[in-house]
Write a structure and sequence with these properties.
The chain has helices at 12-23, 42-52, 62-78, 85-104, 161-171, and strands spanning 3-7, 27-34, 55-60, 109-111, 116-121, 124-129, 152-153, 202-206, 212-216, 239-244, 249-253, 259-270, 278-283, 291-299, 302-312, 319-324, 327-337. With 341 residues, it is an alpha/beta fold. It folds into three domains: 3-182, HUPs (Rossmann fold, 3-Layer(aba) Sandwich), CATH 3.40.50; 199-253, SH3 type barrels; 258-337, Translation factors (Elongation Factor Tu (Ef-tu), domain 3), CATH 2.40.30.10. The strands form four sheets. A six-stranded antiparallel barrel has the order 12-15-14-13-16-17. Strands 3-2-1-4-7 form a five-stranded parallel beta sheet, with helices on both faces.
Length: 341
């Protein structure tokens, strides 16, 4: 019988993923990655694994997680960028560790509860969007190692979230007790800036007038496109349009200045063979529809993205993910913005 190792968080999605794989007749073993102290769902994971009658492994990756995910996350904000820890975790922790555990357990496959699909076309595996448009999580998965695709199973890729809930309730899976997680897991419902103590005040400058409108309390408190909590007064709405860590300055202006057409992307990871110039659709944040763009290679590890229509607030540190229809071509980290001011 084929064996699969499933990453289990204690939530409904990963629990139902394990259930579906077992229902298909596979030998299923679960793994809970202990990434930080006092995880909220550990006992629930144990209860769920016991209920599903699958073996559960607990892997302590706290040291690696702190070094590879948490530290870069906080350091990124200090440098004026906005990191995406889920993308980094999938790339450096979750999928590499699943691969290692699968090897040690002689399992042919690895699986998670992500809403995405892996399908073979002409005997080549590709990453595709999940069919639930509202829940599709392919944006967070572009950074995984392409060579892992033949091993990966995403049981929920052909399900909608409501169907997953119905299965969990019908089967009586204990993880229906878990709260839906929408925040960064290791922050434990706190804000990232609660963990950053050292900061330096600097000016908040309106770009179009050059006026200093006030002082900021550290560039880590701001992100491109931000409108609230700016600590300044103005007769019209102002948005953060530029963060300059060298000058320790925050630049603001009217909303239209936050719309950009072009930016550079580095730390590229391709999940399929592509040639540039590449006409495709691009997402620069999870909660947006992909928009048409032209992608051109700038150098070995950098591409230039030119949207057909300017987009609101591309942000350094966030991911740009490239799509061709349902297929995920790859992506990278937004590096530099072509702001023209």
């Amino acid at each position: 019988m084929e064996k699969v190792v499933v990453a289990m968080s204690g939530g409904i999605d990963s629990s139902v993923a394990a259930y579906l794989l077992k229902k298909k007749g596979m030998v299923v073993e679960g793994v809970f990655f202990l990434m930080f102290d006092e995880p909220s769902n550990l006992e629930l994971v144990k209860k769920t694994a016991n209920y599903l009658q699958i073996k559960l492994h607990i892997e302590d990756v706290r040291e690696k997680f702190e070094k590879e995910v948490m530290q870069p996350f906080f350091e990124g904000y200090k440098k004026g960028i906005t990191p995406n820890p889920c993308v980094i975790c999938n790339k450096r922790i979750k999928f590499p560790m699943l691969k290692l555990l699968a090897q040690s357990l002689k399992a042919q496959y690895i699986a998670t509860g992500h809403y995405a699909r892996v399908e073979n076309h002409n005997n080549i595996p590709y990453l595709l969007k999940g069919i639930d448009k509202k829940k599709d999580q392919s944006y967070f998965l572009y950074s995984i190692d392409r060579t892992l695709l033949p091993q990966i199973k995403f049981p929920l890729g052909t399900y909608r979230k409501q169907q997953t809930r119905q299965i969990a309730e019908k089967v009586g899976i204990p993880s229906t007790q878990a709260e839906e997680s929408t925040e960064v897991c290791f922050l434990k419902n706190k804000r990232y800036y609660d963990f950053i103590r050292s900061f330096k005040e600097g000016p908040v400058i309106e770009i179009s007038t050059g006026k200093i409108l006030g002082k900021h309390r550290g560039i880590h408190l701001y992100t491109i496109g931000q409108r609230k909590r700016l600590g300044i007064s103005s007769p019209y709405p102002l948005y953060v349009v530029k963060i300059d860590p060298m000058e320790n300055a925050i630049y603001v202006d009217r909303k239209e200045k936050a719309f950009l057409r072009e930016f550079f992307v580095h730390e590229l990871n391709w999940l399929s063979d592509v040639k540039t110039p590449l006409n495709c659709h691009v997402k620069i944040r999870y909660a947006m529809e992909p928009e048409e763009a032209l992608v051109i290679i700038s150098d070995k590890d950098t591409v230039k993205v030119s949207f057909h229509e300017p987009q609101f607030a591309p942000t350094s540190g966030q991911s740009a993910v490239f799509y061709k229809g349902e297929f995920v071509l790859g992506g990278g980290i937004i590096k530099a913005l072509e702001q023209g001011f």
